[in-house]
Design goal:
The protein is mainly alpha-helical. The protein has one domain: Four Helix Bundle (Hemerythrin (Met), subunit A) (Up-down Bundle), CATH 1.20.120. Helix content is 74%, strand content 0%. The protein contains eight helices and no strands. The chain is globular, with a radius of gyration of 19 Å. The N and C termini lie far apart (44 Å).
């Protein structure tokens, strides 16, 4: 059986992210292609986290271009671990745990540093609060997703992937493209915002972008998952 390596479009419209589809996934496939059969996906996850944290450190140090390059490379590698895991047949609970945990760490570090730099340049303590709000809102999104979706989407066999579509349905193109274009604030998108505004040293605007987008996304996540739970309970009654 031929193993598929090159990334394809997400099969669900909800998973379409502009930066990931246009830049991160293709670049990850190119960078990791020479080592696709030898490097363990978990090693890529760790390398992604280390690279991203180095980028945050360079942002703190005032090296905007170095920060941008490291942040973007960390973002690309973050999309590459899943690509390798599926290609090598090494998807695992440990890999998922490392991936989700590294996301929490990388964005907490980014939001904290951005908030501090925004406060230092403006002397407005509100920016420290905004940084904390961004981190909290991001955790809320992940918390409600991983608590609700396994119960609502999984069959009684507890196979969490059984109800997911296996191939791309053409009907997801329009909603997927609209979602990607109209909401450029997903995980990969946030890194691009940080890279661009970091080079410009506009940390006050970046702090508002991070806190505002993630707060809106958290409210949407809470409401949408509540609707999922209510519908699930009504069907199960």
């Amino acid at each position: 059986m031929t193993r598929k390596y090159w990334p394809s479009l997400p099969v669900r419209a909800v998973d379409w992210e502009l930066t990931s589809i246009v830049m991160a996934r293709p670049l990850a496939a190119l960078i990791l292609y020479p080592v696709r059969d030898t490097v363990h996906p978990n090693a890529v996850t760790i390398a992604s986290l280390v690279t991203y944290l180095l980028g945050v450190w360079q942002l703190w140090a005032g090296n905007g271009w170095a920060a941008a390059l490291l942040l973007l490379l960390g973002m690309v590698l973050d999309d590459g671990d899943g690509l390798l895991a599926r290609y090598q047949g090494r998807t695992s609970l440990l890999g998922s745990y490392l991936d989700k945990t590294s996301d929490v760490i990388r964005f907490w570090a980014l939001f904290s540093v951005v908030g501090y730099l925004a406060w230092r340049s403006s002397m407005n303590p509100l920016h420290l609060y905004l940084a904390g709000m961004a981190s909290f809102a991001l955790m809320v999104q992940g918390y409600v997703k991983w608590i609700v979706e396994p119960f609502v989407t999984a069959p009684k066999s507890e196979d969490l992937s059984a109800n997911l579509p296996k191939s791309l349905d053409k009907s997801v193109f329009v909603p997927g493209i609209l979602k990607a274009l109209l909401w450029p604030f997903h995980e990969c998108d946030l890194t691009v915002w940080a890279a661009v505004l970091g080079v410009m040293s506009n940390f006050e605007l970046l702090d508002w972008v991070l806190a505002g987008s993630q707060s809106v996304a958290a409210v949407i996540a809470l409401v949408s998952r509540l609707i999922m739970v209510v519908r699930y309970e009504s069907r199960s009654a």
